[in-house]
Amino acid sequence: MNILLIGSGGREHALAWAISASPLCDKLFIAPGNPGTAECGENVVLDIADHRAVADFCKVMGVGLVVVGPEGPLVDGIVDDLEAAGIKTFGPSKAAAQLEGSKAFTKELCAEFGIPTAGFARFTDEAAARTYVARTGAPLVIKADGLAAGKGVVMAETIERANDALAMMFSGGLGAAGAEVVIEEWMIGEEASFFALCDGTHALPLASAQDHKRAFDGDTGPNTGGMGAYSPAPVMTTAMAEQVMAEIVRPTLAGMNQRGTPFKGVLFAGLMITADGPKLIEYNTRFGDPECEVLMPRLKSDIVPALLAARDGVLNAVDLRWSDDVALTVVMAAKGYPGTPEKGSVIKDIDKAAAEKDVLVFHAGTQAKDGDIVANGGRVLNVVALGRSVSEAQAKAYAAVDLIDWPGGFCRRDIGWQAVKREREG
Ligand code: AMP
Ligand code: GLY
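^ thats the input. predicted complex w/ glycine below
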């Protein structure tokens, strides 16, 4: 079967790596891909926003399955349009992608189906929101309703900061995403990302991971798309995973079904493990980036039959095996990220790092230029290592990072610190 994968980040390189290893995959196309995905298949130039053009490409090339990596095309309805054109596509419909596309939609679903999450209120009017903030008091979390590339959340320790965030969002600082604002209770606990594959009715738990959202060591600096991750997340014990499935994932699938918009694809639950149990922070309707880069290396089974079964609604027949090893990824970003990253700096010796035992390097914002690999985005490389513990995976990942010669880049030096501390304290 020929497969088309949509996207160009580290997540897509990890997916391309896993998909291309499947005996079911004859030819893999990636649109637009990156220099890393070019080693797993053929990168193709396609206007992803033109769903008709994507469908035509699939027909001409005999593509039997499309896998959509990022949220943008999902929220834009690419799955609906490709399926309508007769092309099997893995991912949620436009209606189901609202779980990621609108925070207010998800909060209402939680309220309706009793899914544990932070208390909240919704506002389309700044004055009403300010009155609510004054009445409730800080700390609070202020969120733009729509997609804001990870920049739509302000953790407001004080009322002044909450009001500043409201002013920024309601004056169009985040564009249309901020036309509606959700104000939430600030939950305390440890965060974990939990992934489940869904076929509309059944959910198959995948694995858990922990992301590092802040730009700098010690979880300081601005929020980013994620500076590193490891899997599994130690807080996500078997019992906790079952609780998350029972209280959060399965009720969500049931609720979406009841509303006539069944969810197919990857359900990515951002969780806070609070003293009162797991609570949903937010949903994403795709694999996480960089979480996918630590999930794929731990997956022992062929991913393609699982993706097909999710699309076909027969996931109950699928069982996936995972390695007991820990995978840890360090994101190498271009200086300036998450502001304006410097483009064009040359990166040398990626192959030296990739040749290390138990190490994989997944490309994100790279570009091939005159025989060199150069930086072409914010998050540029993922250096992934497998080990028997987080400490071991961390040591191997940083040893590989240090082989890469890239003065224009930086990375956090403490990815996995919480788990390493736990392991040391035994
Ligand atoms: P989100 O984009 O909704 O995942 O939020 C980004 C980050 O903000 C999360 O990973 C959390 O660290 C934090 N966050 C969001 N909502 C809350 C909340 N209600 N309580 C505590 N932290 C939150
Ligand atoms: N790493 C968080 C995300 O993919 O949204």
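The mean pLDDT is 96.
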